[in-house]
């Protein structure tokens, strides 16, 4: 079956990055069949630049999100899952079921030139690969080069660049418009038997440091809230906070992450209301923590 790739990019105020990101897509050795950029109420020159780019890049289509889709002007867009709302708006604007793969790319993430060729090749090699992507590098402190952000690539795909097979996307019911969507999606993919993976040797450049759009510490706290929503255990979150604490601002990052989780617990923030999801997450976390300390379950005779 011929592969057809739909790429959707929710963007807002990406004047500093959008031309570089667009040219990286245009230079792909395997370009998207359709690229829908959803301009979600930008107040800078993003709209003007997108209009110019749409005349230069054949596969590019620009969609302006109506004010009702933006839910007004908010400071904490991560909390309201604004980007996934814009993504779904772009999805609804086309016949997405006519594509074999659906990808999301943020407006601040610059792809290597063979990115889509490589990713689609991985899907072709592994029929049970449902969700895939690359890694990404943030600007190094002081602006001297780039640092690849460490993630558990054997199961996690960064939210800034994801690609789904159509079958997997339909099985998980699309992307939920809620905080924590980029953990919920991949968990449901694995529940349905699909593999989820980020490829270490395929690195994109993330021009806006992670969790910085609404303030770094606020972003860390929101990630802690995401962990609570997705039924991550306190023991896992505590260990994770120690690792997050190594990221700038050192120490405070880990405190903010743990605070976000505990605050959500105190407030009884609604979690994913699915006992199958909860049991699956707890089982996965238990297995990962045991693997981290070198424990292996004995084989049955």
Tell me what you see in this structure:
- With 301 residues, the chain is α/β, with parallel strands linked by helices.
- It folds into two domains: 5-206, Spore Coat Polysaccharide Biosynthesis Protein SpsA, Chain A, CATH 3.90.550; 216-292.
- The chain is built from eleven helices and nine strands.
- The chain has helices spanning 18-26, 46-56, 67-70, 82-92, 115-125, 166-171, 181-191, 216-229, 234-244, 252-267, 275-292; strands at 5-11, 34-39, 60-64, 101-105, 109-110, 129-139, 146-148, 161-165, 195-206.
- Strands 1, 2, 3, 4, 5, 6, 7, 8 and 9 form a nine-stranded mixed beta sheet that branches.
- It is globular, with a radius of gyration of 19 Å.
Beta strands, count: 9
CATH topology of the largest domain: Spore Coat Polysaccharide Biosynthesis Protein SpsA, Chain A
Number of domains: 2
What is the level 1 CATH name of the largest domain?
Alpha Beta
The outline comes out as globular
At the fourth CATH level, what is the homologous superfamily of the largest domain?
Spore Coat Polysaccharide Biosynthesis Protein SpsA, Chain A
Strand content: 15-25%
User: What is the CATH architecture assignment of the largest domain?
Assistant: Alpha-Beta Complex
Q: Give unreliable regions as ranges.
A: 69-76
- If you average the pLDDT, what whole number results? 91
Fraction in helix: 40-55%
> What is the N-to-C succession of helices and strands?
EHEHEHHEEHEEEHHEHHHH
* Number of helical elements: 11
Content-based structural category? alpha/beta
| Distance linking N and C termini | 43 Å
**Biggest beta-sheet profile:** 9 strands, mixed
Over the alpha carbons, how many angstroms does the gyration radius reach? 19 Å
